[in-house]
Amino acid sequence: MKQKRKKRSLMDQLTGIVLVIFAVGVLVMVAVVIREKMPKKEASEPVATAAASDSAVSGSAADEEVDERYLTVYKSESSGKSKDYKGSVFSLELNEKNSTYKEYLVAGGERSEIDHGTFERTEEGIRTVNRNDKKNTLLFDEEYLVSETALFEGEVPEGKTFDKTFINKAEGESEVRLEFSESGNFYQSIMKNDASIDGSDMEKESEGTYERKGDFINRTNKDGTKMRPIYIYKNKICVTYYQLEKEATMKN
């Protein structure tokens, strides 16, 4: 009897093992069937992940920060020069490592890129070529850069006030007239020659008072707001100029 019980016990154990193996096999088969019925979903997930990965790579490349050691920065209004001026500020950032530049508009606490391109340093200044292949030369004048295309025709007379009219003709874009009277008043008009600039060719005007102080002509609009000072470069007036804010510590 004892031998029969041992045989039955052994048989029961073998039967249990067989049942477990069978159950595992069934589960595996069910999992395979379920997986085969969902090929599209599983195939689409790697594609989506790859697309997101590509987007992240391109985004990080575009937003890659410039090494500050190679960055030279000029601003239209640098610290301490025009304390009364509260208007927009233009920031010109030169990447000395790869000879590219970006220009930003800082207004209302926000900073937006308005132009970018490449540049080359020369003895007289910095030659730029922007994204639209437009060329300009920013002339060196001690700590300032003066836009050659923004220089007006005519020389500035001596004195704090004077009678003189200056004209700047930006080819294909606009004509700016600045009229100064010895009484201390000024009148400025901008005629757009290219309607694509703002959708119109209407004349824009401003007027107020002015006074020359050294290399600057300070203006106050008739509504009392301070306008951006005009810079005098070699007896010519210029409305587009930048002052050195930060010089790169490393250059190529």
In short:
The protein has helices at 2-37, 39-62; strands spanning 71-75, 89-95, 100-107, 110-121, 125-130, 135-141, 144-147, 164-170, 174-180, 185-192, 203-213, 216-221, 230-233, 236-238, 241-246. It is an alpha+beta fold and 252 residues long.
Keywords:
24% helix; seven-stranded antiparallel beta sheet
Describe the structure.
The strands form 2 sheets. An 8-stranded antiparallel barrel has the order 1-2-3-4-5-6-7-15. The chain starts with a helix and ends in a 6-residue tail after the last strand. The protein is α+β, with helices and mostly antiparallel strands and 252 residues long. The radius of gyration is 36 Å and the shape is elongated. Strand 5 and strand 6 form a beta hairpin. About 13% of the residues have low confidence. The protein has 2 helices and 15 strands. 24% of the residues lie in helices and 40% in strands.
Structural class: alpha+beta
How are the strands ordered across the major sheet? 1-2-3-4-5-6-7-15
Largest sheet: 8 strands, antiparallel, barrel
Unreliable stretches: 39-63, 195-202
Work out the helix count. 2
| Overall pLDDT | 77
* Element-level helix/strand string: HHEEEEEEEEEEEEEEE
Give the helix proportion (percent range). 10-25%
Q: What is the radius of gyration computed over CA atoms, rounded to a whole number of angstroms?
A: 36 Å
**Quaternary structure state of the chains depicted:** single chain
What is the molecular shape?
elongated
